């Protein structure tokens, strides 16, 4: 998701120069990794964002806090972002009719409410306002793109939290557990989370299975 003039980042598919292969069983289990610093630089270049913001994204991805980030995880996450890059650029420019390089937060809400249809508009608005760094009521292109990239991270974080609360791999969680995940990750009110979870609990048994969970994610983030 780079902007014009940003440095071209090395694809995370390529192992950084000088980095050694993991050996033996560790390599079989862990695969190839890049360091947090390399991941941060990649994100800075791809999203044309600040190092501080990139660090926050990397922190959300690196759940075991070992200073290393899986190439596979980064590639998958940014592949999803890149699929939407051209569309987002076009939409931003369409809204930015005076070519000022800014759009209002209300205009951004209109765009993202259509993309993240399962999230209430009030929630989208609250999240977007967090990315208006100077409180001007306007978003620059990099802020606009950063918001979208971070929403992709939120989806991945929700999946990780689901798996963390299902250590025995039963494939289901109590509805209340999923509601708490949505409140914490998506910055939404309790009643909004409850409504979203109730809508995806197709058999109304108070448990959210994998199929229902996938439907919720698709409704919210696709």
UniProtKB/TrEMBL annotation:
Keyword presence, Repeat: yes
Record's GO cellular component terms: myosin II complex
Keywords of this entry: Calcium, Repeat
Record's compositionally biased regions (Basic and acidic residues): 10-29
Gene Ontology MF annotations: calcium ion binding
Annotated region (Disordered), positions in chain: 1-31
PROSITE patterns linked to this entry: EF_HAND_1, EF_HAND_2
Domain EF-hand: 83-118, 119-154
Keyword Repeat: yes
Name of one Pfam family that matches: EF-hand_5
Name the UniProt record assigns to this protein: EF-hand domain-containing protein
Species assigned in the record: Paralvinella palmiformis
High-level lineage: Eukaryota, Metazoa, Spiralia, Lophotrochozoa, Annelida
